[in-house]
Design brief:
The chain has about 325 residues and is of the alpha/beta class. It has 12 helices and 11 strands.
């Protein structure tokens, strides 16, 4: 039955290219974005079936979009299996569009009447939940591609697909979102993800901060200035180092970086390997550590730059046999 559904979806996606010319003779409704009008965003996902995780995901996404976009500049529409089940979750500015489990034609109408589609389900291109759900997302991506409209996958999971489902996703999702990746943050995690994905994907890294510029003032002088009492709040360091962000809540001070490189630009560069316990239970990470050493050579040749505390810590670790 799911395979028959996939054939129907292929036909509908192919026909969706004619929505625009047919709309001119009033045989169907089609909308394309023009400058100055509100951007109509369609949120496509498994919603309204009393699945708490799925419902919470789309609610959070609509709140984020409303915060980022002014009300008069965007119209949000959420597709849902049961409008009454989720009506209380959303603000009045969010439109709810009911659809049934036979979604083929209702999804075609919805995509044709919106400018952008966002696929927000976690299990997007995976057979984990149901093959029909994967077909649902493939159809949305395929229609938007045929009509020349953006289709974005938000927090989506892509798993191993076989047979007809793999061919369907490859055909309909090509050049939509599978080849384009947006990574938020250029820190250690974001930079590594960008490196691993580059070559197979078109990667864009978004960073809120600017390029990091080290402090020209020696830290010893900064420490002396602190003793004067004029440096009465840790957050004042941001005046000297804009990339260093400091949040203070009661007795906790959180330091992080906002700039190219993220918090890694503020880190001390210490590397600690502590996998002896893992080896005892049969987990050997030698291959992973050797790969890491190849990317980031770890050495102690720069001891002349160490602070007295670092030198003392290194000496104690040597004396205790920790092989630093």
């Amino acid at each position: 039955m799911d395979r028959l559904l996939s054939y129907i979806v292929r036909v509908v996606v192919w026909l969706s290219r004619f929505a625009k010319p047919l709309s001119r003779v009033r045989l169907c409704r089609y909308e394309a974005y023009t400058k100055g009008q509100p951007l109509k965003i369609l949120l496509v996902g498994y919603n309204g079936a009393r699945n708490t995780g799925a419902d919470a995901r789309v609610v959070a996404l609509t709140q984020q979009l409303q915060q980022a976009l002014e009300a008069e500049k965007a119209e949000l529409t959420v597709m849902t299996l049961d409008k009454e089940n989720v009506a209380g979750y959303f603000s009045r500015q969010v439109h709810l569009l009911p659809f049934t489990t036979f979604f083929v034609f209702s999804l075609l109408r919805a995509c044709s009447r919106h400018h952008v589609a966002i696929l927000f389900e976690g299990s997007t291109l995976t057979p984990t939940f149901a093959d029909a759900l994967c077909v649902f997302f493939c159809e949305a991506a395929g229609i938007m591609r045929r009509q020349g409209k953006p289709c974005i996958a938000y927090g989506s999971e892509v798993g191993h697909l076989d047979g007809w489902l793999a061919r369907l996703s490859s055909d309909l999702c090509r050049d939509t979102y599978l080849k384009k990746v947006i990574i938020i943050g250029s820190g250690a995690g974001g930079a590594m993800a960008a490196r691993m994905l580059s070559g197979n994907f078109e990667v864009t890294v978004l960073e809120a901060g600017k390029a990091f510029r080290p402090l020209a003032l020696p830290l010893e002088k900064l420490a002396k200035f602190r003793k004067t009492g004029l440096y009465f709040d840790e957050r004042l360091i941001q005046l000297l180092l804009p990339a260093m962000r400091i949040d203070r809540q009661e007795e906790m001070v959180m330091v992080y970086g906002r700039g190219v490189g993220g918090t890694t630009t503020l880190a001390t560069g210490n590397a600690v390997r502590a996998d002896e316990g893992l080896k005892k239970i049969g987990i050997n990470l030698d291959e992973e550590f050797n790969e890491l050493y190849g990317e980031l050579p770890i050495t102690t040749d720069h001891q002349r730059f160490w602070s007295p505390i670092t030198k003392k810590t290194f000496q104690v670790m040597q004396e205790t046999g920790m092989d630093p």
